[in-house]
Amino acid sequence: MSSDKPSEINLETQTDTLDSLKECIQHRTDREVICGDSIEWLNGYPDGGLPAGYCGFTSLPDLSEVQNIFQTDTVSYKKWFTDTVALFMRKLSRGSYVVFLQSDIRYMTESGEVTQWIDKSFLCSTAAEREGCTLMWHKLVYTDKANSKRSTGRPSYSHLLCYAKPKLSTDPIDGAHERLLSKTQARKERSRQNRVKPTAEVKENEDTNPDDATTSPSEPEPTQAPTVPRIVQANYRTSLFAVPDIFFRGHMLWPKGIGLDSCFVGIMFLKDVANATGIIDPFAGQGTVLAMANSVGLPSIGVEISPKRCRKANNLEIDLDLISPCMRKIALDIVAARAELAESGVVGGGK
């Protein structure tokens, strides 16, 4: 019996796949970096108005990075964080996916006493519930390669979260949709689509012939109830994304940046599983996400408020040799699995 469980990766015997990866990925240079306020930029689009086919990948600022705004007001920060995640999801087009890399906050007094733990995965999922988005996967990336240091300050892991914004469809219900809907929902949907609105009633009495009533020339043609758009649940094949649930974040280009392995994993999912045609990062920083998107063949759009970081984000280039051999091998497996599905007549792996 076949199993969906991915095979273990033997790093000792694994050959370097860098050349193979570069052969199947075409580098792009389509990158737009906008210097401005991310919230204002997002609010400049109508709901669902960001470019169709583009997916999101970002990391919202930590409390320490916006200390001048919130000082020690964690309640206001958590509200701002949740509202901003919801805003980004709301502006994405239907059928898009969005990835967040966020580190929790162990909030302490100056004397080192912990007063609360801010779980950013909870805040992201709270925003997703508000916007009708679905959590598709949740990975943990650890920041200590040896994974042995005592954790006293910043948590030694980050959340890598992927959400889907479902499509709306007016197509008649079919078997695939019926499997995703509950039996009750499917039954109601079929009943609604097949319902006939009577425009003339046949008076029943002893002299009425039932056969005449059904063949009366004055009876109008049946009319179908108007179709109401319904949500189509997003999905993806596990064979296309057999990535470890916990892994090292990878090389860091700058202290507050995104680890390259975690960035690479998210971008490859959006490209080869979610079928993204471009990447948007409204908190671009020095451009790790934007450059990684270009390195695997996707155009990118980023927003950054700091002019200095904007210049760096516009010029940053990432060589795939900075990605760990393990993740390069996984990326090749994703490409191969996608090609196999395409040959068998299955288009894409998600959406």
Automatic annotation (TrEMBL):
InterPro entries: SAM-dependent_MTases_sf
Region ranges (Disordered): 182-228
Basic and acidic residues: compositionally biased ranges: 182-206
Designated name of the protein: DNA methylase N-4/N-6 domain-containing protein
Annotated organism of origin: Spumella elongata
